[in-house]
Write a structure and sequence with these properties.
Helices cover 37% and strands 29% of the residues. A hairpin with a 5-residue loop joins β9 and β10.
Amino acid sequence: MHNTAALRLKLLRYALIAYALTAATSALAEGPRTLPTSAQLSASYLSTTLLLKPCMDIHEWSDDPSDDVVKQFEDARRGLPPDACSQPALVEKLTTARFLQYASITAVHDPWNLDAKITAQNAAIAQCKDAQCLERELNAVITELSPVYLHARPEWPRGVGLCTSKTVEVTPSKARALIGTKAQKVLTDTCASESLSMQTCSVPGGQFVFASCTMSGNQVNGPEWLYRIKKAKPEPLLAVDDGPVGALKTSCNGMPDLMTAARVSMAEHYLTYYRYDGKRYQPVYAYTAMDVGADDNGNGLAIAQDRQLSRVICR
């Protein structure tokens, strides 16, 4: 009976994982990806709309725009050549380039590397004083990023993972022996009315302990912890509130990179990437994935907004 319940819980957990990332990265594809037109892009927030369509007519958003809305429109166009928004073909190309930049971030598992390219692209665009220069730089963006976006197939990470052996369930008494009574109580108190689930697996020179609060109903995210046991001493490596945690194919300082995808709403997800600094996992990149429509083949469209970047030195 216990094994059956545990199996059901795992199946539910995997289903929720798949659902969370599918929604976060718009991975439910109806067919090959296509580049959307500006008419196919829509967003609930003005900031998201103007990121993609800085040349949009203000009255498309509001018949009686407030001072704040006017300022946002002015800020969106600041830095563009004065004649850029008067040329329809160039305006469409600007939207395509902006979409590719921020949609490609949601389509890769090493967004910190792509972010550096986008920063360089935007620096080059900012130097343009006329439409001819702007078109040249936009063409370069579209040429470089179209293959990245069109050929990507976002899915929950399927890297080699952290373990070199199959994970096994840990009993409460075994958990106390592994991580200590105090740490176990903190985890149990965090899970509150939900139960604490723990697993362990072997790795060279020690073992990992994974802990999480069991999820119920339509819950998608919850607290998770990762410990490494070396010479009978527990080392806390990661603690997150928005698990599950996925292991990526990339690595840093001998440990796989990790990521979480937290559902904020049906149209917003918050993704965080972690790299090992030699002692603990540190957040190195995060963004909000915003749904912005669908393409001709029914593929959901999402872009990265509110990007946050920090660094961990990989030796």
